[in-house]
Amino acid sequence: MEIIKIERKVLAKNDAIASEIRGKFEENGVFAINMVSSPGSGKTSLVEKIIENFSGRVNISVIEGDVQTDLDAQRVSAYNVPVVQIITNGGCHLEANLVNDSLKNLDLVQTDLLIIENVGNLVCPAGYDLGEDMKVVVISVTEGDDKPLKYPKMFINSKVLVINKTDLLPYVNCKIEQLKQNALKINPALQVFEVSCTSGEGVGKFCDFLESSI
Amino acid sequence: MHELSLAQNIIETVKQNVTAGELGKVREVIVEVGAFSGVVADSLKFSFEAINAGTELKNAVMKIIDIPFCLRCIDCGNETSTEIPMLLCSICGSSNTQILSGDELRVKELKIEEE
């Protein structure tokens, strides 16, 4: 049999579009984060808190990714920031071409910080570059301290870990030190922040970090 | 479950690398799948076959080469493979490490039946 050498990444096309997006961000001075987590960890609540914190200081645009409904976009638009909803219709993650298309509906020149809220899923979004500056993985204490060991790829590919719902720590069987230890075993370079979107505790520190990165 | 879209990407790559006349002669598509690529090899194969059923690629079989996770510690020099991919050296505990393999998801080669 004849052998044809290929040596091509399966996601080469996605990566090429992600590079194109990255170029647009650089050109327009946009700092972009790709927020990933399991469903219900509080990504949208964190987006709301970030917007509140940066109100009047940093121009934020938001891309919301969901399998169905524009409920998240409705929530975010109440804060008077530009928001685009991507509905994947069953797709378990956002791909670069979806993000690239949605950029047509945003004014990048007027954007300092772009928050891409991915579909809630700790598996598939880990593999897809969306042109972001960093992936921020959010985990809530109700999910348990072993999550980083169960979904290592997401923690390897993220630069920042935000532990949310810390106000619930007294009521759940999650040891936050163990959670951090597990996460740092998987990826020692992770920057870790502890927040409660309900009480607001820790949100300021995370926002300070974001502001220094922009 | 994103294996279906990955299989579509692989099929597109196959089509880009053979002539229209060769398409029906593709017998094997060799794909490298790393231990933490996030892909279920069986689902990928299933998706590949499901898409190709009844097409010119119906006789093409996907062969998977599993690539283990391998980490090199820059401080102690050891190369290790842990079941859970960890960037912390399991021998000396250093965080000064480098991934050697395990995140691959790559079409390596095709085998075409010759005349």
Task: Walk me through the structure.
The complex is a heterodimer of chains A (214) and B (115). With 214 residues, chain A is α/β, with parallel strands linked by helices. Helix content of chain A is 35%, strand content 22%. Chain A has helices spanning 12-28, 43-54, 71-77, 96-102, 147-150, 152-156, 176-186, 203-213; strands at residues 2-9, 31-37, 60-66, 83-87, 113-117, 134-140, 160-164, 191-194. The longest helix of chain A has 17 residues, at 12-28. Chain A is globular. The mean pLDDT of chain A is 96. Chain B is of the alpha+beta class. Chain B has a domain at 3-67 and 102-112: 2-Layer Sandwich (hypothetical protein PF0899 fold), CATH 3.30.2320.50. Chain B is elongated. Chain B starts with a helix and ends with a strand. In chain B, 32% of the residues are buried. The mean pLDDT of chain B is 95. Chains A and B meet through strand 1, helix 1, helix 6 and helix 7 of A and helix 1, strand 1 and strand 6 of B.
Descriptive key words:
heterodimer; A: 214 residues; alpha/beta; 8 strands; 35% helix; 22% strand; B: 115 residues; alpha+beta; hypothetical protein PF0899 fold; 3-stranded mixed sheet; 30% strand; elongated
